[in-house]
Amino acid sequence: MCGIVGYIGSKKATPILIDGLMSLEYRGYDSAGIATIEKDAIKVMKDKGRVKNLYNLDGIDKLSGTVGIAHTRWATHGKPSKENAHPHMDNSGKFVVVHNGIIENYADLRDFLISKGYTFLSETDTEVIPNLIHYYYTNGPVSVLKDESEKFLGAVKSAVYDLKGSYAIEAISTICPDEVIVVRKDSPLVIGKADGENYIASDIPAILKYTKEFYLLDDNEFAIIKSNNIRFFDNSLVEHNKAVKNIEWDANAAGKDGYEDYMLKEIFEQPTSIRETIGSRFRLGEKCSFDDIEISKEYLENVNRIFFVACGTAMHAGLVGKNLMEKLCHIPTEVDIASEFRYRNPIIDEHTLCIYISQSGETADTIAALKLAKSKGAKTLAISNVIGSSITREADYSIYTHAGPEIAVASTKAYTSQVVLVAILAMHFAEILGSSDKLEIESLKKDIIDLPSKIEQILDNTEPIKDFAKKIYTEKDMFFLGRGTDYSVALEGSLKLKEISYIHSEAYAAGELKHGPIALIENGVTVIGIVTDKNLVEKSISNIQEVITRGAKTLVITNQILPNNNFDYVINIPETNPLISPILSVVPMQLLSYYISKFKGLDVDKPRNLAKSVTVE
Ligand code: AGP
Q1: What total of structural domains would you count in the chain?
Q2: What pLDDT is attached to residue 142?
Q3: Rounded-to-integer distance, Cα 391 and Cα 372, Å
């Protein structure tokens, strides 16, 4: 949520900052702003709306400063407006900050500052930060600090000490015009190191075209960044060295590559991203292996329960994982929404394995749920797409989907890669435990290897899906039905539709419909049925017949030859093992939501009210 960019070097900062914000816009897009250090003052320019509006601001082209910070906002405290947009300046005009996260005790801090004579221009929680920095700069322990730079750092540290909540902060000051100070807690921040210049961002892809060398800031770690040196400090301001990390992502992978939208590009990337996820983790005739984790038979034999914990789409990947773990490893498995798990006092001990799935690796609820399980003695395993993300740094074990950067807010390729990775993990555990028939696992491996070419077949024939989208895009309500694994993917199809088309939709276990929701079915309502498990075909079809009888218009996504054919539309997909069928059946649903959103003229990549990475509770 919210995106941060910073630059310090010899080039004009403004174009670099705006360009970086553009690529971070998926993190928040209700307002944006920049601040640069001009000759003797800090110039702040900001506005409501999209990042590109910054180009229209009077005088923005005249900024020539080579040090600057920038922000694209996803509103938490205060409506989207110019006043609430970042950067925020203190009353003296000497300190300016941008901030991601939430300051939970901002009301108390604001009252304190008001009692000291400070005034506020915005409704944000953030505005307390530059004023606190000013307060501590003017009231701090001056004598023990050597120079202005350390005095500035000392003031930032004292201000941050007062904050409760989550933050990634960039601060600049007229007092030290040649530096940017950064600090983070529970909100991501990276520093890109280049020759004679340094970059800052909340996400690696935003600055990947400038450098491949990154410092991943830790919680409660501070840095003073100058154009040709970076100093790191712990939360007692003791200086330390930090290792630089080489990031091998391809900068072009973060672009649109000729596609109209990131989401469409990412849907079409799935054959490639799945191949990357498989990587060298298994071959036919050989056991699965993970370079990144070592889990013993002795440990697994003592695991009596597995939890998948995640949010949104990642949680839906966990639902598929439950089936895989129970079928292949015979370990009882539960799936929890992270925001519920963290407050429901789950029964966890050292015999529990908690698996956390998060594309971004920065989702606040998922991180908190992970810390909770660790504190209760469980082992934790993170599945993420972002190397070095917060969740992977907290977990006992981390494995990566390697799906490449996912920019569109609506997750597509991350989901399919998460399911593939969970399937490989379940096979790996089953091989360690000897809990499944070898031939069964071998056949699942073959099915996983075949997934990319089967997705290509679906992507080669998108016209029928587009055609159906054209017929239904003006509707207000839709239903998704499925049984077993088809139900878990129905939930994902329904979420995708809501997110980017703003059409209300519900997903139901097909057999549950008659226990209430069938009352909502009336003439012309669209129902999408997913039927991929041959053992459940007849049951699922009966449920779809029940809605047809009540006037519903139906689209059926199937890999079976269906006994009757009174459906309005049928999308045929290739057959695969039912345990992993969501990886194929989700693709037509991703495309359906995409085309509906396009027909409605909506912004597919940046749906209203949503942000890519949910770093607040
Ligand atoms: C997916 O389309 C959504 N944007 C959302 O549900 C997302 O999956 C969820 O916020 C979890 O994100 P994470 O995988 O980065 O933790």
Answers
A1: 3
A2: 53
A3: 13
